[in-house]
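Sequence in, structure out.
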Amino acid sequence: MEIQQIFSGFCPKSSSAPSIPIAKQLFSLKFPPLPFPSSSSYSFIQPQNLEFPNGAFHPISIAHKKVCSSSRRRIWCSSSYNTAEASEGHEVRSQFTVRRKRLAVFVSGGGSNFRSIHEASKRGSLHGDVIVLVTNKSECGGAEYARNNGIPVILFPKAKDESDGLSPSDLVDILRGFEIDFILLAGYLKLIPVELIRAYERSILNIHPSLLPAFGGKGYYGMKVHNAVIASGARFSGPTIHFVDEHYDTGRILAQHVVPVLANDTAEDLAARVLKEEHQLYVEVVEALCEDRVVWRKDGVPLIQSKEKPDEFH
């Protein structure tokens, strides 16, 4: 395979997003467009996570309105909430623009979840674009799909028989050069280096084919997971999407779908049932991520705000 040569640069992270005061009047937030990467420098903007004062989060209703720009989406928001300290309800309505997110996907195999995410982006249901693919197997199905769709492929880590390759710091610089907002692991079987986790805090997701924390950790992947579920006698399984920390499958859980384990299931039967749910769940979660609908509770638990019922979180 002809490995695509990629150059990288580094710029400091952007400052944190401005706070939004609670008020009854209509106001607007306008953000300047991001500069397009040039051959001499890159501007990297670390994604900001929505935090709320006093540990409370305020439901925000979101409805999309079309605009002429292909890279930005206009969103109207309204919020109302009551707290024990508040003597009266407050309402906030704002108009702001959500920047289209830039995604990196990591795969080690066929990349069916990667394909689902990319197809959702192409049909417009996902407000983000897959900018680059990272793989530890240059000839895997996911890498082939990326090359066929004009997506750059990065080999990381290097193969054992190669004398030269990217270091974790090199990889961080390359992803910053591409101005990546979020990293999506989709069947990537290597442990993510700590340098990458620190550079993309709360911005790396993984999907696992069981209901974590059950049947997770080092050595639990692919058919090994489904065989273990059936052998245990568990009556339910399903995919889990979680944020990535420095260990295998131990990050904060963001979303799960439950599927039944039937009496006569083989591991292959269960794997097919779970994979179908994976394709749907991962796209739904990435849609929420790209629309800034992921919020963090005071205790560090991530939640997804419902698009249809903005006062509900799950």
